[in-house]
């Protein structure tokens, strides 16, 4: 394993869309053990959560002044709002589930936007999102580890 491979996994973990759901399998593909890829990806994905929880709402407010960014933000928030509708009445549990399910267009970024839309307090949102990231990491680890064991068992 080279430093570049670790940095690649970290970069994928903190990027919207791929997050740890993409980083863990890529890490294993690059030669990491499923456990190492998961630990690195979960830590990297969690590291962005507090920062983004603090800056997303003010940043979106500022960027809305510009037509191009305003339209992008509107689309992103509308997409998040569609997902939040299913979880809104459960608030924190719903936010946790939204982040924990390792399916496309869910994850820490969607959870951060959803927390802003629902006006969830920082501490509560942080807890729900971080636990969701941890759970998603465990789920992806289990899937990737299962495939790895199947692939190398024969």
UniProtKB/TrEMBL annotation:
The keyword Membrane applies. The chain crosses the membrane at residues 38-60, 92-120, 126-152. InterPro entries: Sm_multidrug_ex (IPR009577). It comes from the Bacteria. The keyword rRNA processing does not apply. Keywords: Membrane, Transmembrane, Transmembrane helix. Pfam families: Sm_multidrug_ex (PF06695). This is Small multi-drug export protein. It comes from Helicovermis profundi. The lineage of its organism: Bacteria, Bacillati, Bacillota, Clostridia, Helicovermis.
